[in-house]
């Protein structure tokens, strides 16, 4: 939890082409300083090593999925279970590489980074409540799973790299909140999957950690650093500053939290004066807790 980690994170997030592995490893270093330095370097080496195990020769999306599945899923046991949702280590790339277990999005990061190093065309895809990997050309016209060869396939790293069938993918993509339209026929997706860019993935990783920490007051410090890192990203919702102020108050920093509430109220005051007034009232209440 050093300034140098945050400075490196901010610089990496503002690169023209942000490095997904580097940003995820910096999240791990912020969570636990022991995961920085040599441990982070070894994680990069492990990703390179795994990529080197992918045999030469895959050409189609399905061949890439099968080759990666043999190495990462069957060969090295990368997968997830329900119990992994209760562990912070499931969201830290260094620990996921060590344990070979994690949340869907972190397992997907492993697949993305190994596939990219091996030369595959690969994207992360955020689905309602789940995260998977697309191999191949997701922008190809049609989106037919039945095409031969298919322009892309979706795999579920949480399930050891299982290749999703058309009905599997349609079920996931048309879940609540997806906005997807029903498919037009057997094997056809409700719309081509939308690739998540690097910063979207990083933001989602941080959101997951914050959601893990939220129910327990002893994890307020974790909520705070996830907010601090998210606010270092080039794009973030302004309301996160208000959320950060609330966490500060819960941690006993009444003056700091009140000051940040007032700053946020100033930002939204011109277009939402009612909410701004309510937040200023909360800031006064936070200051009163000092008495």
From TrEMBL:
Residues 59-207 form the Protein SirB1 N-terminal domain. Residues 176-188 have a biased composition (Gly residues). It holds the Pfam family TPR_9. InterPro entries: SirB1_N. PANTHER family: F-BOX ONLY PROTEIN 21, SI:DKEY-261L7.2. Belongs to the UPF0162 family. This is Regulator of sirC expression, contains transglutaminase-like and TPR domains. It comes from Actinacidiphila yanglinensis.
């Amino acid at each position: 939890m050093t300034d140098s980690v945050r400075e490196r994170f901010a610089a990496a997030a503002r690169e023209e082409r942000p490095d997904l592995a580097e940003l995820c490893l910096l999240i791990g270093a912020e969570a636990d300083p022991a995961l920085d330095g040599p441990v982070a370097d070894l994680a990069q080496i492990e990703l390179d090593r795994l990529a080197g195990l992918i045999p030469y020769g895959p050409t189609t999306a399905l061949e890439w999925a099968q080759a990666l599945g043999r190495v990462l899923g069957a060969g090295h046991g990368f997968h997830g279970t329900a119990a992994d949702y209760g562990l912070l280590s499931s969201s830290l790339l260094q620990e996921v590489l060590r344990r070979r277990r994690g949340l869907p999005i972190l397992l997907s990061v492993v697949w993305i980074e190994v596939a990219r190093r091996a030369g595959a065309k690969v994207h992360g895809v955020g689905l309602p409540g789940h995260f998977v990997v697309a191999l191949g050309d997701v922008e190809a016209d049609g989106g037919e799973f039945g095409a031969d060869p298919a322009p892309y396939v979706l795999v579920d790293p949480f399930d050891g790299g299982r290749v999703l069938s058309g009905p599997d993918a349609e079920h996931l993509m048309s879940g609540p909140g997806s906005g997807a339209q029903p498919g037009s026929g057997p094997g056809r997706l409700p719309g081509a999957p939308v690739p998540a860019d690097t910063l979207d993935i990083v933001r989602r990783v941080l959101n997951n950690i914050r959601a893990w920490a939220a129910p327990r007051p002893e994890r307020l410090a974790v909520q705070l650093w996830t907010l601090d890192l998210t606010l270092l990203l080039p794009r973030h919702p302004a309301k996160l500053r208000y959320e950060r102020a609330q966490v500060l108050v819960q941690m006993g920093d009444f003056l700091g939290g009140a000051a940040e509430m007032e700053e946020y109220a100033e930002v939204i005051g011109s277009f939402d004066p009612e909410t701004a007034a309510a937040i200023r009232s909360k800031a006064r209440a936070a200051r009163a807790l000092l008495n």
